[in-house]
TrEMBL record, chain A:
Annotated ranges, domain DUF1468: 30-162
Alphabetical list of InterPro entries matching this protein: DUF1468
Transmembrane segments: 28-48, 60-80, 92-115, 135-157
Sorted UniProt keywords: Membrane, Transmembrane, Transmembrane helix
Source species: Kribbella antiqua
Protein name, entry field: Tripartite tricarboxylate transporter TctB family protein
Automatic annotation (TrEMBL), chain B:
Protein name: Putative tricarboxylic transport membrane protein
Lineage: Bacteria, Bacillati, Actinomycetota, Actinomycetes, Propionibacteriales
Highest taxon above the source species: Bacteria
Transmembrane helix among keywords: yes
Chain segments annotated as transmembrane: 20-39, 46-69, 108-135, 147-163, 170-187, 258-281, 318-341, 361-381, 469-490
Alphabetic keyword roster: Membrane, Transmembrane, Transmembrane helix
Cross-referenced InterPro entries: DUF112_TM
């Protein structure tokens, strides 16, 4: 029994770093989202045509899979509400949102003005504002990173990245 | 001794300077990411997938394999020194490893772990060499029903054995299977779930999914507050274990090798489970089990040996059946497909240079890792001081620019971002991305096998159960799935009886 005990003590300690769990509504929400995916799959596969078991149509396999997803989502909604494996969104989640924004910005700007300036901005924002590095090291590291990428991708590997210079 | 010829030829492949170099690169990267908490081997392999496009198949797989087993060596270092498991498979090492470090014996713990890993890895490679061709030979006769049963077995076992809720994992696997159907149906030519988008007409590529869910998803998840209190790593001295330490851990290393090899072959087993089992076995066998958790050297030797043995043996189902046993192997599967080499039983006979080249590279890789783990361990300890905040933007840039270079399509960058956000949300809501990626990889194989089987059986579904091999596999699957239910009922029964007694 004691090895289980040890393990749980460690798990508990490692779990301290995790934010509190988000409660029954998040479980229900997750079940609803996967359930909707399942239902959409069922509807889509019916539209494709199931065929017969002797001559399966294009929709048969996705139909079976979607039915499994939908059924299990209902099971999740009914039984999983007391689960503790979801995490609350916290103020730190705002950082993730900002991070995603910088990624989208890079993808949008890349074909227009090349990779150098968007990459520089991305590394700088991540270092200074998401990583809380100092101004000086943020500037130095982001410039060095982009320079290294330029050397690696453009000069050494000669990959046709869209670029300014 | 004819069967040894291709094995020997395989050494010829490994010893080419290029392949030696890729082996070295792979194990160094593996060691690094093992040392750095946060990014696991699956994430790293996902992020590096674009690089493999430009590399010879043998070299690419040698490198990726090196990352995988190299990470098992590196994960030990943070477990022992910082009480922070670098990899899930090194979690149990923390108990005794950190206790040893507190007693000033961190070096001993690392040394024994490295030697154990080396022995476990090598035993496992020998096992792989002997067993894999036999399995592949048998599997050559497998038809669609057997493949349908095996891939279902693989997907469901990975989903139910892995961490995270079972229901959620199976749902994730189902969504992976559904994503795999996007694009043109190979049987009828119908377009499925493409929403008339040209970008989706040929289906979703494996690379952006893997890079998004594993790579970017993990980075975004780690951004949130998980800033561990950084401790100064303990001083490492005396990495060479004494004769007494070695004698004490001899049995643990031997048993760990066997446990790791066996559990690594099973789907869903892999490195993490085998390290837990090996630790539990040593503790049960010990004359003074109370030593465990307070600095027993066997408590480090057993799990570290086992996880490395398992990392190696989990290549067997992939290379012989074409069924990945865990999420990292699913990435290997994808990497092989990128190279135009479908993994499966024909691999040993049709691409012996690749098969034996990769297998034999593991001997070299393990020797390199032993050298890096014992005399050079100080260098890797110093890397522990790099802050995760600096690494995050660099890995993100590698991911986004890397996926662009695959086909020079900005659409792929957006796909990675979308799947990155999905991966992040999955983790927040308690879904593991592993089963999804694995199911996605096996999706088209599985659908094809099921539909061909239906044609063979003339639409009779019971045919899956009456063929000996597919029937056995399905019966085993049902037994494994029913096990927790049976256990639950028995526990309730005994609980009820206890109540009656009171």
């Amino acid at each position: 029994m004691s090895e289980v005990f040890d393990e749980e003590a460690l798990r508990a300690e490692l779990a301290e770093d995790r934010p509190p769990h988000a409660g029954p509504w998040s479980q229900l929400g997750a079940a609803v989202v996967t359930g909707l995916i399942g239902v959409a799959g069922v509807v889509g596969s019916l539209g494709l045509g199931l065929g017969r078991l002797t001559a399966p149509g294009p929709g048969l396999w996705p139909f079976v899979v979607s039915v499994v997803i939908t059924t299990l989502s209902v099971v999740l909604a009914l039984t999983g509400r007391r689960g503790t494996d979801t995490e609350k969104f916290s103020r730190a989640s705002v950082m993730t949102a900002i991070a995603v924004l910088t990624l989208v910005l890079l993808a949008l700007l890349l074909p227009l003005i090349g990779f150098e300036i968007p990459s520089l901005l991305l590394t700088f924002v991540w270092l200074r504002f998401l990583g809380k590095e100092s101004w000086r090291s943020s500037i130095a590291i982001s410039v060095a990173t982009v320079a290294a990428f330029y050397l690696l991708f453009v000069v050494l590997l000669q990959i046709p990245l869209p670029r300014l210079i | 001794m004819d069967f040894l010829n291709p094995v020997v030829d395989g050494f010829g492949v490994v010893l080419q300077p290029v392949n030696l170099l890729y082996c070295l690169i792979g194990v160094v990267i593996g060691m690094l990411i093992g040392v750095l908490p946060g990014l696991g081997p699956a994430a790293t392999i996902a992020i590096l997938l674009p690089i493999t496009y430009g590399v010879e198949p043998v070299s690419a797989i040698i490198m990726l394999a090196g990352i995988f087993y190299g990470a098992q060596y590196g994960g030990t270092i943070t477990s022992v020194l910082l009480r922070l498991p670098g990899e899930a498979s090194s979690v149990v090492t923390v108990f005794d490893g950190f206790a040893l470090a507190k007693q000033g014996r961190a070096g001993t713990a690392l040394g024994v772990a490295a030697i154990g890993s080396f022995i476990g890895g090598t035993v496992s490679i020998i096992g792989l060499t002997l067993l894999a061709p036999v399995v592949a030979e048998v599997a050559l006769d497998f038809g669609p029903p057997e493949y349908a049963a095996l891939s279902l077995f693989g997907v469901l076992l990975v989903a139910t054995v892995g961490n995270g809720g079972r229901t959620k994992s199976v749902i994730a696997a189902g969504i992976g299977l559904l994503l795999a159907t996007v694009g043109r149906d190979t049987f009828t030519g119908a377009s499925r779930f493409t929403f008339d988008s040209l970008n989706l007409a040929d289906g979703i590529d494996f690379v952006p999914i893997a890079m998004g869910l594993f790579g970017l998803g993990e980075i975004l998840y780690n951004l949130e507050e998980r800033h561990h209190k950084v401790q100064a790593p303990a001083k490492v001295a005396n990495v060479w274990p004494s004769r007494h330490d070695l004698k004490q851990s001899r049995g643990a290393i031997g048993r760990g090798s066997v446990i790791g090899f066996v559990l690594g072959v099973l789907p869903g087993g892999g490195a993490t489970l085998s390290s837990l089992v090996a630790y539990a076995v040593e503790k049960r066998r010990a004359k003074q089990p109370e030593r465990f958790g307070r600095g027993a050297i066997e408590g480090v030797a057993a799990p570290e040996t086992a996880n490395n043995a398992a990392a190696t043996s989990s290549f067997i189902p992939l290379l012989t059946l074409g069924i990945p046993a865990n999420a990292t192997m699913a990435l290997m599967f994808g990497a092989l497909l990128i190279q135009g080499i479908p993994p499966g039983p024909q691999l040993v006979s049709e691409h012996p240079d690749l098969f034996w080249g990769v297998v034999n590279s593991m001997y070299i890789g393990n020797i390199l890792l032993l050298i890096m783990s014992i005399p050079m361990v100080g260098i890797f300890v110093r890397i522990l001081r790099i802050r995760p905040a600096i690494l995050a933007p660099i890995t993100v840039l590698i991911t986004l620019l890397g996926v662009y270079t695959v086909a020079n399509r900005v659409f792929d960058i957006f796909l990675v971002i979308v799947f990155g956000v999905v991966g992040y949300l999955m983790k927040k809501f308690g879904f593991e991305p592993g089963p999804l990626v694995l199911a996605f990889v096996l999706g088209s194989v599985m659908e094809k096998a099921v539909r061909q089987s239906l044609l063979i059986f003339g639409g009779d579904v019971t045919g899956f159960f009456t063929r000996p091999i597919s029937g056995t596999v399905l019966a085993a699957l049902i037994a494994v799935l029913a096990l927790p239910g049976v256990r639950y009922l028995m526990r309730r029964k005994s609980a009820a009886r206890d109540k009656e007694l009171v």
